[in-house]
Amino acid sequence: MTRMIERWFPSAEVSANSDKGWGSGNSEISLFMWFAKRPTAQAKAATICSLLPWPDDVAEQERLQELVRSAMTGRYAAWTELRAEIAKSNPEGATTLDPFSGRGMIPLESARLEVQASAMDYSPVAVLASHLLTSAPFEDWNDEPELPFAPVTEYLVTAGADRLLSDLNTLFAEIKNRYIAAMSEFYPRSGGEFPWGYLWAVTIPCQECGLRFPLIGSYELMPARGQRGAVSFYIAADRSTGTWEAVVTPARSAKAPTLTNAVVNGKKVAGKSAICVFCGHVHPLAMHRRLLQEGEGKDAMVLAADIDSRSQKTFRQPTSDERQAADAASRALADEPAFSPFLPAVPDENIAAGNNNIIGPSIYGARNYGDFMVARQTLSYVRLARIINDIGTELGTAGLSASYIRALTGYAAAVVAKKLRRSTRGARFQSKGGAQVGDLFMNEGSITFSHDYFEAGLGDGPGTLKSISDNVLAACRNLFTNRRGTAASVQRGTATLLPYPPNTFTAVVTDPPYDQMIAYADASDLFYVWVKRCLHNTWPELAITSDPDGCQEKAQEIIVKRVRGEAPHEHRTRKHYDTLIAEAFAQMRQVVRDDGVVTIVFGHGEPEVWQRLLHSIERAGLVMTGSWPANTESGGQQGKANIETTLTMACRPAPGGRPPGRKGAVEAEIRAEIKLRYPDWERWGLAPADMLMAAAGPAMEVVGRYSEVRDAKGDPVDIYTFLPLARAAVQDAMAVEINHQPLEAFDARTRFALWWVRLYGRQAQAKSELRWQALASSLDLAAIRDLVPDADKGVRFITARDYKADIDADSAVIDVALALAAASEEGLQAMGQVLLASERSTDDSYLWAAIQFLADRLPDNDPDAIAFTRVMRTKVGIGNAAQTVAANNHATARREQNNDDQLRLI
To answer: Which of 197, 280, 561, 860 has its CA 20 to 30 A from that of 257?
Structure first.
């Protein structure tokens, strides 16, 4: 059976729904902290297209396409019709597997369709996240005993599937009350209310005067907005007493913060320097970083923040009681008992070597995950974890089932994980947006460190337990309302050793790790060390690890680890990744049914990474049979992995008994196959750039018909060779004409330039796309690099004004066209000189076709579009000017010759 995903995919609908709304996945990711968001629109489309057939009858094809399009209009859109169609197409029962499930975005879509889904991940944090999203919400908890706590009336619903939501509301309220009781002595009230929180800063001793001063990067507290003025502060220092204090002022501060760019002897000092508030001594980045690494940094409370009766945030100096309470918390933390003989209260799990680029605090002296917070913050998490464990025990005494207790405490741990994102020394105070607590992740791949940071207190406001609990409850209300489906099966394991018999699943649909984009385990170890403390009674398996640092295991993690710092034993190399991802794909091939597909969602711009991926697929005994692009990452959700387009690829187990193939014949087949598919792509509205990516599917399908491909000399051919060919075949299939001139009739350099403008106009593109296009054009990158120079962290087609070249008879058409546009501002004579130098005329159809094309394709307000239009309108005049210049040159040459002759006679 040919599956729909091998012939069609709703690329446009996936792209349209991935940024916001039901298809963005924003509600789902609000439940738990994890990485690499997969939009639910893409997950849903990949799942249903992997389970539905692609019939031979065109009318049936169109009917199923319309069903899928209607399904892409909402979370449960076309739910009944889809279930019926999937059941009819899979009479033996449909099943799916995602062995890289992460938070469970892909298995969730199977669960919602009542398709039996299996989810697996190597990270225990991801397993917990996936369980809370794909399994627990779909269980029937109605027969469970009542919680032994006073119910909360807000959002209280005890009937049907909303029992879980009601109990979570009660549970979170109980946790919050106990948390306040456990920590209230360390957070004195102000005006009868608990403060929102406190601004802290790390202090260091000045290397000139010896006095200790705070490192603060910004004095702004609230920017001016409407009728409200700005609020800021500054540090007032008294050198005679060696003391300093923060002074709040109702205006924008005119003083430079103590951590800023400095100028010494007229030269800017690299990085942010720490400037002593007492004597002005400048401590360059390397110096103040060294002081922190040597343990010279100490935390100091700078300001207290309240939220008044009008919900306005106000700032003040901390009271002596507040400072004493923080000191008392430090002493109390030292007395906290361990959670178990092997689990101390304060995390002692070490930060692995080579993690300076992943774990920012390690650059500034942190050695383990207990070093991340001010002591009072650490105490608050220790006691919060103890509360969750105690409640788990009480729920068991009340008769609740172990599985329901695991679910309830798991959601409580989700609150803790989300709160961690707004804690530690990486939680910067942010003045924008009405004053907030910044995320400790600058991107989803690395944890930051900040010299000044915010500690949320017991009151209301961003980063507090109440705020985070309400946020998680809001996500649950959104996800649980009108939910339909069946619970997924979630377990921990490695994709290289799947615990399933052969031919088990109708489809494997997965989003594997992308090379070195995200170090999942290292980046989530902070959550792991606290989650296992929260759940060591109810999820005891979380605490079991063979990692030498006591963190998540990494031996079988399939990534390429970016290392910064000393890491002599780091094993997660490219060889490790390539070997294990091939093993994982081979395992998927084993467990998928003979008529099923392995669907891989993958996004990476670099041709070299694609080469390695294709080799891994080939080594696994899989053949790619479909490839569909969608713009799913435009929000920058991947941080460093900031790709915009991902491919959803269908693969099948390679059939046995395949004959060998010859390169020339295979190339001809690829061109023919793409020419055959092109009319459908055009009819479905695929953009030309998307067709280039879609071409990989049919190209690899053709290659997969053969056991091997050899060239005319009998040498084996790398399958990657055929990807640039496939892209070139799209260009051929499109039969692009440039003002009635076939594109292939132009010289190679001009053909490249016109095709680039046809695809992207003046838009910036990733540098990797330039490499792809160079490969497809069979040109060295150096041969066309001047046409598409660097711009906006990518590349963009050059402007005529910036183009520099000497024009002669050998110049390519595109060079002459750009030179004419550049000369157009100088007048007819300058343009005539260019045309004359090129030895072309106004009858050169290729030159003028290219100029007209560029004038039409570039944006109307683009200076070059205007220049090319000017050139076209003065075409005759340019020709006349060229003739005039030629005549003048000839006359000048004759005069010079005559003068020479006269001189010789003399």
So the answer is: 197
In angstroms, rounded to a whole number, what is the distance separating the alpha carbons of residues 221 and 615?
53
- What secondary structure does DSSP assign to 770-824, as a single string? HHHHHHHTT--HHHHGGGS-EETTEE-PPPGGG------TT--HHHHHHHHHHHT
Sign of the four-CA dihedral 788, 789, 790, 796 = negative
pLDDT digits (tens, 9 = 90+) for 473-519: 999 999 998 899 999 999 999 999 999 999 999 999 999 998 888 89
Backbone dihedral region for residue 420 (phi beyond 0: left; psi -120 to 50: alpha; all else: beta): alpha
Who's near 93: CB < 8 A, 6+ residues apart? 116, 506
Mean of pLDDT over the chain: 91
- Give Cβ neighbours of residue 904 (< 8 Å, ≥ 6 apart): none
- Its pTM stands at 0.88
Do residues 496 and 580 touch, judged by C-beta distance below 8 A? Answer: yes
d(CA 694, CA 646): 11
At residue 99, what is the residue type? Answer: P
Domains contained in the chain, CATH given: 4-135+487-512+566-654 (3.40.50.150), 770-889 (no CATH)
CA distance 210 to 690: 62
Residue at 158: amino acid letter = T
Pair 230, 243: CB distance under 8 Å: no
Taking 70 as the pLDDT cut, the residues of the chain under it are 153-161, 227, 444, 605, 633-644, 890, 892-893, 895-906
Distance, in Å, from the CA atom of 435 to the CA atom of 461, rounded to the nearest integer, reads 10
